[in-house]
Amino acid sequence: MKRRISADKGFTLLELLIVLAMLTVLLSLATLQFNRYSRKSSIEAQVKTLHADLLAARSQALFEKRARAVSLTPTGFAAYSSGSATGNPLQRKTLRHRLSLKSDPFVVVFNAAGVSDSADSDAVCTEPAGNEAAADTLVITPTRIETGKRNASAACSSENITIR
């Protein structure tokens, strides 16, 4: 009995092109999802870092029994050794995501008791509004600093923040 050798072994060029097209579509979708996730986690990390830095300045004011100032700009953070935001800062950071502030610079002074000079509550929001981060805002009251989520497309004010 003779065996026939078939010429139908392997893949055709058309089949390979279809598989490559499908892989290209899947990779592009995965890249988009990764970029969204990366931006979300970057915003959350910035908010957590700012929160920790503000709490550290507050703790230093309380333990050293002297006022400490923190200056926030849309692109940066600076902590000072006195209650005045002038001179050389002890710590300076450049922010990856812009902040929305009620004034530029926005200065928070913690007195010797660790209480901020905020009259009511002030919001520090990370731009853009409507991002997917779980926490994109800091709410600063005289005695607390909390993280929160700004309502989509709302102005950066404490009334539009959901505390997390």
TrEMBL record:
Task: List, alphabetically, the InterPro entries matched.
Answer: N_methyl_site, Pilin-like
Signal peptide, first to last residue:
none
Please name one Pfam family that this protein belongs to.
N_methyl
Q: Which residues cross the membrane?
A: 12-32
Q: Which UniProt keywords apply?
A: Membrane, Transmembrane, Transmembrane helix
Q: What is this protein called?
A: Type IV pilus minor pilin FimU
